[in-house]
Automatic annotation (TrEMBL):
Species annotation: Peribacillus loiseleuriae
Domain (Penicillin-binding protein transpeptidase) ranges: 11-105
Pfam families with a match to the protein in the record: Transpeptidase
Gene3D superfamilies per UniProt: DD-peptidase/beta-lactamase superfamily
Full protein name: Penicillin-binding protein transpeptidase domain-containing protein
Molecular function via GO: penicillin binding
Amino acid sequence: MAGKQYARDGKTGKMKFNDFALGNMTTSYTMGSVVTGATTLTGYETDAINPGQSMVDAPINIKGSPQKRSWKYMGMINNLTALKQSSDVYMFKTAIKIGEGEYRNNQL
């Protein structure tokens, strides 16, 4: 909700909405977690991946590019774990599949 902040009232202890219009400009949030949901949904809709599908979350190496990796090594994970843990690697591999590509280590 733009311009509002849900917080505990210091006097009553109850939760309430406060005006926070400046928060639209003074605070920012990483959109990565939103993108993971959209990537997964697009993967389903294009038949690039299936619900429950597992992939190995390990660093991705594309020749001439910096290494792509998740915030931690997760090993074999399914789509739900990828969403819960915000796996960048699962999303990179899904995007490659959406584009009908195939990932091969250190390939262009």
